[in-house]
Amino acid sequence: MSLGHLLPEGTPTLLIPPLIIIETISLLIRPLALGVRLTANLTAGHLLIQLISTAVFSILAIIPTLTFIITVILLLLTILEIAVAIIQAYVFVLLLTLYLQENT
What we know:
mainly alpha
């Protein structure tokens, strides 16, 4: 197995070992960073929906009309959250595929 894909053309001999280590770490961290990004984006949407839901339950008895409006907004946010989840999953798979093709 050749390590040539980890080095730029014309790399000085002294820099080859550190560059191979750095590139290997970079290749291993890319999918991990994608997973963290995906998780953070999905968690942010869930937290937003949770916070608004909690607010709706706390003002339910005080302002019923506003509660209905906020409930409709929650429904729209849930639809948006599903759309964002689909897009994030698509981007995750696309970037992971590109990263894997880059190294084969």
